[in-house]
Automatic annotation (TrEMBL):
<keyword id="KW-0547">Nucleotide-binding</keyword>
<feature type="transmembrane region" description="Helical">
    <location>
        <begin position="266"/>
        <end position="286"/>
    </location>
</feature>
<dbReference type="InterPro" id="IPR001245">
    <property type="entry name" value="Ser-Thr/Tyr_kinase_cat_dom"/>
</dbReference>
<keyword id="KW-0325">Glycoprotein</keyword>
<protein>
    <submittedName>
        <fullName>Putative receptor-like protein kinase</fullName>
    </submittedName>
</protein>
<feature type="signal peptide">
    <location>
        <begin position="1"/>
        <end position="22"/>
    </location>
</feature>
<dbReference type="InterPro" id="IPR008271">
    <property type="entry name" value="Ser/Thr_kinase_AS"/>
</dbReference>
<dbReference type="InterPro" id="IPR017441">
    <property type="entry name" value="Protein_kinase_ATP_BS"/>
</dbReference>
<dbReference type="GO" id="GO:0004674">
    <property type="term" value="F:protein serine/threonine kinase activity"/>
</dbReference>
<keyword id="KW-0732">Signal</keyword>
<dbReference type="GO" id="GO:0005524">
    <property type="term" value="F:ATP binding"/>
</dbReference>
<dbReference type="GO" id="GO:0016020">
    <property type="term" value="C:membrane"/>
</dbReference>
<feature type="domain" description="Protein kinase">
    <location>
        <begin position="321"/>
        <end position="616"/>
    </location>
</feature>
<keyword id="KW-0675">Receptor</keyword>
<keyword id="KW-0472">Membrane</keyword>
<dbReference type="InterPro" id="IPR037176">
    <property type="entry name" value="Osmotin/thaumatin-like_sf"/>
</dbReference>
<dbReference type="Pfam" id="PF00314">
    <property type="entry name" value="Thaumatin"/>
</dbReference>
Length: 661
């Protein structure tokens, strides 16, 4: 027994020393402008605390023992109620106390997972899997290829999609993940989607990964979000860091203190000289720096909100051969034809927006809207350019131009009504997608023939989202600060609250006017002289007169459909007419949603009834004049069906805009 005592003593000493050496120091510091209440939750081993308060500028060091496995997060906006119960707006652990003992419920916050001395090494992961509430930086005391400073530095609560934002009053304070926001199998990678093959990254996880590339946000992400360090590595976890340091903090830095102190006079002189050089450089380059700062003032927001490739203005010039081929012009800018610079050399349309002194919110709004939409009837974007006042949108080229141009160029020929019907159905499906399937939902607010582009197969694609508005899934009425749209297609409630609130039904109205426009353009030789003295805003009563007499042939003009032609075309014309009339009902609640519009177009004609006549005898011209005087739009010269029906008999050609933007 006495002989075995030295062995036992050596073994115990080894275990004690190994445990001490493999222990890590976790220093948690708060650089936010407010108090943060850290949460410490442990699955294996325990730390000395489970929760505490850190005021601005404070730090606290904790000893993490060998084999500790747990997480660290931060709570914000915490307080005690009248009964003394403690709670927080974000990251609350539901313990009613500052400490968080017992079980833990996942919250929409930024997490940092740690494993100390697991298999002879430490590991940590920054996770946005459940959401985000605070920027976090983790700095290890020892660096290597698998162990270096990392974090999520961007304030995602401000760039978060509207339907995933967590608010405290009107201020966004956190961001939910797509899974926590919708709980669908596609977003949570559950059920059928529980595999990398079936569960694809959502646009939200891609957005998070773009601005926080070292954070874990998607179950099957290929990025290396787990960092492996040697055991006994110490860490500094910083909430609201100002920047990522190029040199990691070291717990052994104190040994160098004396040598640095000796160099202090030399370093002071060099610093003074450096300051002088910087002042001179700033004086010489102030204009260039101001221009550059202005150019990238919204970079952080646009990178997080838009998931598209960004091109330099120099590349834009190369794509368009120095803007050689103009294919369209409008109030918002000019559209050029070009080619991608990659191996495909694919044809593109490149819209150069007019220079603006604003901060680019409309531009970012259009990019954010279109990048969220992916549908066969929505124009596809390839990228954008944003360099100060130089702004461009790059999207797929449409060889048949806009619907407006397509109809006007084919009016002299016998156009197939089946083609126009398919175009109407395609536009309806695109709007139905924006209103119901897109996350968040999108209301376009500028549906018109000029904003419907035609590809080589005459498949219609909705474009130009400059006036679009994103809305929450539960949001039915949209608050607008100004009227938006194009005269002749804008819904009554958009410019006057007397007709109701603006909503997705405003797009339904514009769509109905487009459908009736298609019918009216085909009937260009209709005699309207008897109404030439009436206001151009009065509705063409002849449509209702023909429907009441069941004279569907007159709807398309005697030069196209005759009694000998197939009955199918007559049904198509009448179906399009009835659907268009239902869509332009004065009261928004009387209009069908786009999902119903698609059903009406694809259903039987017998199921459709003639809608009540809209109240177009109201003094709308005065309202339009007020809008025109108060705010010019890019499309005030565009004439709608209502305006075209009152042209004199010698002007039987439809006046169209060449605008494609």
């Amino acid at each position: 027994m006495a002989e075995s005592l030295p062995v036992i003593f050596l073994l115990a000493s080894h275990l004690f020393v190994s445990g001490v050496l493999s222990m890590s120091i976790l220093t948690i510091e708060n650089k936010c402008n407010h108090t943060v209440w850290p949460v410490i939750y442990s699955w294996q081993s325990q730390l000395s605390t489970t929760g505490f308060a850190l005021r601005k500028g404070e730090a606290r060091a904790l000893q993490a023992p060998s084999s500790w496995f747990g997480l660290i997060s931060g709570r914000t906006l915490c307080s005690n109620d009248s009964k003394g119960n403690f709670s927080c707006v974000t990251g609350d652990c539901e313990s009613s106390n500052i400490e968080c003992p017992g079980s833990y419920s996942w919250s929409k916050v930024t997490y940092v997972y740690f494993r100390i001395d697991y298999g002879g090494s430490n590991s940590h992961t920054i996770s946005l899997e459940y959401g985000y509430n605070l920027p976090v930086l983790v700095v290890p005391s020892r660096s290597s290829q698998t162990c270096f400073s990392s974090g999520c530095m961007v304030d995602l609560s401000k760039t978060c999609p509207d339907d995933l934002k967590v608010f405290d009053g009107a201020e966004p304070i956190a961001c939910s993940s797509a899974c926590r926001g919708s709980a669908t199998p596609e977003n949570c990678c559950t059920g059928y989607f529980k595999s990398k093959q079936n569960c694809k990254p959502t646009m939200y996880s891609q957005s998070f990964e773009r601005v926080c590339p070292y954070a874990y946000s998607y179950p099957y992400s290929d990025n290396n979000s787990t960092f492996t360090c040697t055991n006994s590595t110490n860490y500094v976890i910083t909430f609201c860091p100002s920047s990522i340091p190029s040199i990691p903090r070291s717990s052994t830095a104190g040994g160098k203190h004396n040598s640095l102190w000796k160099l202090k006079p030399i370093l002071g002189g060099l610093a003074a000289l450096a300051v002088l050089i910087i002042i001179v450089a700033i004086a010489l380059m102030v204009r260039a720096k101001n221009a550059r700062r202005k150019s990238y003032s919204n970079d952080e927001n646009i990178e997080a909100a838009v998931m598209l490739r960004r091109y330099s203005y120099e590349n834009v010039k190369k794509m368009t051969n120095s803007f050689a081929h103009v294919i369209g012009k409008g109030g918002f800018g000019t559209v050029y034809k070009g080619k991608l610079l990659d191996a495909s050399g694919r044809d593109i349309a490149l819209k150069i927006l007019n220079e603006s002194k604003g901060n680019g919110e409309d531009f970012i709004n259009e990019l954010a809207s279109m990048s969220r939409a992916s549908h066969v009837n929505i124009v596809s974007l390839f990228g954008f350019c944003y360099e100060g006042s130089k702004r461009a949108i790059i999207y797929e080229f449409m060889p048949n131009g806009s619907l407006d141009n397509f109809i006007s160029e084919n009016m002299s020929t016998k156009m197939d009504w089946k083609t126009l019907y398919n175009i109407a159905v395609g536009v309806a499906r695109g709007l139905e997608y924006l209103h119901n399937s897109c996350v968040p939902k999108i209301v376009h607010f500028d549906i018109k023939p000029q904003n419907i582009l035609m590809d080589g197969d005459l498949c219609p694609k909705i474009s130009d989202f400059g006036l679009a508005k994103l809305c929450n899934n539960k949001e039915s009425i949209i608050s607008l600060l100004d009227a938006r749209g194009t005269i002749g297609y804008i819904a009554p409630e958009v410019f006057s609250k007397n007709f109701g609130g603006a909503s997705h039904k405003s797009d339904v109205y514009s769509y109905g006017m487009v459908v009736l426009d298609m019918i009216g353009a085909k009937n260009k030789k209709r005699d309207e002289t008897s109404r030439s003295n009436k206001s151009s805003m009065n509705f063409p009563d002849w449509i209702y007169e023909d429907l009441e007499r069941k004279e569907t042939i007159r709807l398309v003009g005697d030069d196209h459909i005759t009694e000998e032609e197939e009955e199918e075309e007559e049904k198509i014309v009448k179906k399009m007419t009835l659907v268009g009339l239902w869509c332009i009902q004065t009261n928004p609640s009387d209009r069908p949603p786009m999902r119903k519009v698609v059903e009406m177009l694809e259903g039987s004609l017998e199921a459709l009834q003639v809608p009540p006549k809209p109240l177009f005898d109201l003094p709308l011209v005065t309202a339009w004049d007020i809008i025109k005087d108060s705010q010019e739009t890019s499309t005030l010269s565009t004439q709608s069906l209502l305006e075209r029906k009152t042209l004199p008999t010698d002007q039987d050609t439809v006046i169209v805009s060449k605008e494609m933007v």
